[in-house]
Write a structure and sequence with these properties.
Oligomer: single chain
Helix content: 40-55%
CATH class of the largest domain: Alpha Beta
Low-confidence stretches: 535-554
Structural class: alpha/beta
Radius of gyration: 29 Å
Number of domains: 4
Distance between the termini: 53 Å
Length: 641
């Protein structure tokens, strides 16, 4: 039975039909990726499913007891409090008890003098959590915070927008809903966090409905693709690469059909005009058919044309673009770049990869001489014309219109030696005249990125520096940007967490590998994975995919919070064998049931239900084993109390 069913849903925004009588069913265990161009209504549809927005017409049926959790694209107003409490709020009552426990342990850490009231408060919270069996949820929260690089005690209201979205993602993940709805979950995540998120979602065996521009993420997770195109939904039961090919075939057939229709309509229009002159009576059946064709043509929604971006290229640089010799940089005694040397030649396309905050943007500034290295030197070649795409969009004036951001009030701009009307130029970046007149602050994330590209490409360049250019761009625009960069004869320095984009564009990779260590490799992201030292060291011993980071030994005396945590781990360790035995027994029962020939006489629904239950039990057993190993490691590494 479907978890949620949409029937004839329609939404009209200011005269534009965004969703036109669309239907959708989400079955248990599906992982559906919603695709479509920016502005087609993907986020709107997710908001309707989550109950945040009402459709103009149609019905939504949600199965009884189904819980939905959503990561929205925009951060809701009014959220505050420590990050741990915001994340735990996704667990309702248990989340409140976990927040009480975390608050008590944090206060006890900082308390001076009489701590007895706090100890009693902590013990009370611990007893409630024991009764609810909530410690597994606590561990899941700690795991999510660790992998999403969040600090439990930071106040949510003081965080940047990107960090707030990571907190909301953690909240959605730990809530364990029946349907998880994610709108662009990989935005503001580095590659390590994206890979962890993929594995987490696969192991949790959840029903998932998501929107993403990350093609590697899409390909790894999606079991079905649902496309929004001109107000209609189409379901594609295939992987992403197959969808792309089939979609091209459909569009080609549609274009041919429309061409034939328009040709026939033009012939009929010519006939009706000639008929007035040639005879008094007409074939009324043919006239009625012409009227029907006119109506059909009037109702056709044309597909928005593709972006046609062009990069202006300046005169060529010298053969050598930049050379760094033993450069290093540190911030507050923390090494960002240890002595590193590289030579960048004309035409190189170099990707920079590493965790958020590792220093990728800092290295770009060092290479561009915007920042002075602590040691070493940087030398530039001749005739450099640099254009810089800034991930924070600092070069856009939020109060000005898209048009004025490009042309500063002028009607024409210079492009490749000629003049082009600014509205015509913006049309190539998929801005209608109406959207081009709007202030930047009301544009969507995808529109802002396209506008920033439009502004960037008005300047001739022979060195292009792009810091996270792919955020919020739809897949078609990403494909075009890839083609542009591949054909660009200048030099490219690219920071990106989009693995497919890196694989398709760059010829070498500079990787931040921890503690200021920076190394350069030939090829893209996958090539780096094969070459990096950690990969070679682990070949003899296959890595175990785990939900949890492996605990490390801690020197010194245990804090009060750590003592309580270890005590809890010991209690859990006593209960785990019984839990594992029960799960293994339940799994065996499902296997026995699936081996019964009589089951298959009752129809496919019963078989599918049993298989889904079996998969969930096996996933839970794997999680319990991983948790057991985590606890043993934590106890083994703990210092003496």
């Amino acid at each position: 039975m479907a978890l949620i069913s949409l029937q004839d849903i329609s939404i009209n925004f200011t005269g534009t039909v965004l969703l036109d009588r669309v239907c959708l069913q989400v079955e248990p265990g599906e992982r559906i990726c919603l695709v479509g161009r920016n502005g087609e209504g993907k986020s709107t549809l997710l908001s309707v499913i989550n109950g945040d927005m009402q459709a103009d017409s149609g019905e939504i049926a949600v199965s009884q007891g189904v819980r939905i959790a959503m990561l929205p694209q925009d951060v809701p107003e009014g959220l505050s409090g420590p990050t741990y409490e915001v994340v735990a709020s996704g667990l309702d009552r248990i989340g409140r008890h976990l927040a009480d426990y975390h608050r008590a342990t944090s206060e006890l850490e900082e308390a001076a003098g009489d701590t007895e009231p706090l100890v009693q408060q902590l013990e009370k919270a611990q007893q409630v959590l024991d009764a609810d069996g909530a410690w597994e949820h606590h561990q899941t929260i700690e795991t999510a915070l660790s992998h999403l690089k969040l600090h439990a005690d930071e106040d949510f209201s003081t965080l940047s927008g990107g960090t707030q979205r990571r907190v909301l993602l953690a909240r959605a993940l730990v809530s364990r809903p029946d349907l998880l709805v994610l709108d662009e979950p990989t935005n503001h995540l580095d590659i390590d966090s994206i890979v962890w998120l993929e594995e987490f979602l696969l192991r949790q065996n959840r029903t998932l409905l998501f929107v993403t521009h990350d093609r590697a993420f899409l390909g790894k997770l999606a079991t079905r693709i649902v496309e929004i195109d001109r107000g209609k939904l189409t379901s594609w039961e295939c992987d992403y690469d197959t969808y792309v090919q089939r979609k091209e075939d459909v569009l080609s057939a549609e274009a041919k059909q429309n061409h034939n229709f328009d040709k026939k309509l033009a012939q009929e229009e010519q006939w009706i005009r000639q008929g007035i002159k040639a005879r008094r009576t007409r074939n009324m059946g043919r006239v009625r058919e012409l009227r029907a064709m006119r109506e059909e043509r009037g109702q056709r929604r044309e597909r928005l044309g593709k972006a046609t971006m062009v990069i202006q290229e300046a005169d060529r640089t010298g053969k050598m673009v930049a050379e760094a010799t033993d450069i290093s940089f540190a911030f507050d005694d923390k090494p960002i770049v240890n002595p590193f040397s590289t030579r960048i030649m004309r035409g190189d396309k170099i990707g920079l990869v590493g965790p958020n905050g590792a220093g990728k943007t800092t290295l770009l500034r060092l290479l561009l001489k915007d920042l002075q290295p602590a040691t070493g030197s940087v030398r530039h070649g001749a005739n450099l014309e640099v254009s810089y795409f800034d991930q924070h969009r600092e070069v856009l004036d939020e109060e000005k219109s898209a048009r004025d951001n490009i042309a500063e009030g002028a009607d024409y701009i210079a492009i490749n030696g000629g003049r082009k009307h600014v509205l015509g130029y913006l049309k190539e970046f998929l801005f209608t005249p109406d959207r081009a007149q709007l202030p930047v602050k009301v544009l969507s994330g995808g529109e802002r990125n396209r506008l920033l590209l439009a502004k960037l490409f008005t300047r001739p360049s022979n060195v292009l520096v792009m810091d996270e250019p792919t955020n919020d761009l739809d897949v078609e625009t990403l494909d075009l940007l890839e083609e542009l960069l591949l054909d660009y004869s200048g030099t490219l320095l690219l920071v990106s967490h989009d693995r497919a984009f890196l694989n398709n564009v760059v010829t070498s990779t500079i990787a931040f590998e921890g503690d200021g260590e920076v190394r350069e490799y030939v090829g893209g992201y996958d090539d780096w994975l094969r070459q990096r030292p950690e990969r070679k060291a682990l070949k003899a011993k296959p890595a175990r995919q785990e939900d949890k980071p492996r605990p490390q030994p801690k020197p010194g005396k245990l804090s009060y919070k750590e003592k309580y945590q270890l005590e809890q781990y010991r209690k859990e360790l006593e209960d785990l064998p019984g839990k594992i035995e029960a799960l293994e027994g339940a799994i065996q029962e499902k296997h026995d049931a699936l081996s019964d020939p009589e089951l298959y006489k009752t129809g496919g629904d019963a078989v599918n239900a049993l298989q889904a239950e079996l998969a969930e039990l096996e996933s839970e057993l794997e999680t319990v084993f991983a948790h057991w190993e985590f606890i043993e490691q934590a106890l083994e590494n703990a210092p003496a109390e």
